[in-house]
Structures are given as C-alpha cells and as structure tokens.
Amino acid sequence: MKTFYCDLEITLNVIGGKWRPLILYYLIKGPKRTGELKRLIPTISQKMLVQSLRELESANLIIRKMYNQVPPKVEYSISEMGMSLEPTLRALCDWGQNYAEKNLSKDEYRRLNVE
C-alpha cells in the first residue's frame, strides 16, 4: 500500500491528473457513454479516456453499467462518493473563471469554450 503524507496527497492521488476531474465534472451532469465523453473532451485519447474511467471506477467514484444488448452498450454515471466532489469541482470552476477574468485578455477569454 502506498504511503501518504497528507490528506491532499490522497485526494490528488484519487482525482488528480489532467482528465479525471473533467470526466467527473461531466458525469455529475448526468450519465454518459464513452463516445459522449470523448466528444465533450476532444483532446483526450481513447486509451487515456478508458484508463481514466477504469481508475475512477476502481476508486468507487463512478459506476459502469453494461447493458446486455447488441451492439454492447456501456454507460458511466457518478457514484454517491463521486457526487460528494461536486462542491469541490464547482469551486475549482469558479476559481478558473475568476483567474481567467483577471489574467487573460478579453480575446483569450472569449476564445475559451467555457459553459
């Protein structure tokens, strides 16, 4: 088992990285299939998306539901533990917006694809 030296290190180990917070952010809004997540996060590779989904599932932050049909259908949704991250993710979004407004030019800010 890995040794952690502070609580923040545990948090970053579970949800850190470039892609996991984004995946959680979109799944909080509702269940998604892999293709939907890929469209929402176009710069993620398919391999990294699948790897990140597996990591989030093994951390009990998301739920993978497989439907018994042809062609196979798999849907991902946020778990109760994952949903507990919503206030944190919203605070990070607010911080990002505040940072962008104060540190990016109006043209740079306008070019962002911010919801």
UniProtKB/TrEMBL annotation:
One of its GO terms (molecular function) is DNA binding. Keywords: DNA-binding, Transcription, Transcription regulation. The keyword DNA-binding applies. Residues 6-104 form the HTH hxlR-type domain. PROSITE patterns: HTH_HXLR (PS51118). Transmembrane segments: none annotated. This is Transcriptional regulator. It comes from Paenibacillus zeisoli. The lineage of its organism: Bacteria, Bacillati, Bacillota, Bacilli, Bacillales.
